[in-house]
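Researcher: Please translate sequence to structure tokens.
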Amino acid sequence: MAPSVFDPGAEYDRQVQNLLGRGYAGLAGLTDDGFVELVAPLRQTALAHGTSMDPPKPARLPFALVVSKELVTADQVMPQTTLAGRSKPGLVDRNYAAGELSRFNPLKELEIPDGKVYLVFDIDRGEEFLNVTPDDAMDTITARLRTPLTWDEGVALITHFPASLERNRCFSLAGSRCGDRRVPALWISEGAPKLGWCWAGNPHTWLGTASCGGRAGPR
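Model: Translation complete:
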């Protein structure tokens, strides 16, 4: 059987419809048409970057359409996430104070594209870093000329690809920091995704560190 061919245009269209179906337009204060207009320029970016990529797998994804925290908050979007084949909505861990996630900003070296929406490419959920501290994982990720995911990129990942979050295959999002040693992370709690945090120097057997090969805004 011939290997399946990845169609970046079709995948981009699927992700736009996925966000519309999850109510992102309203969460962002837009009509559906306004949301489609906002993200439309990114389709050419997806086509330009995605033609040589492989089809999605739980551990490795070609790209994800990110709606940044400038438009939507974690409290708004985590309830729109579910595990694959499940319906229980995700949540933000109670150990975050109210509104505290807004203080977790991307590391400056990530060079997040300007604008409120963008694409993140060549995503690896980082299971090779299970039982490795985020600090140590960062050294390896940086040496490979890759960068860690931010929390809003991680939420985008599981929104578009729920199967990427599996039991004992969860991941830290070390690209977002707030000036202390906490690192946001996505894991499973009571049958649903949860956005919590762990310490940068603590290893966990069930928690890797997710990374990407690049980011891009509209062409």
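Researcher: Any highlights?
Model: The chain is about 25% helix and 25% strand.
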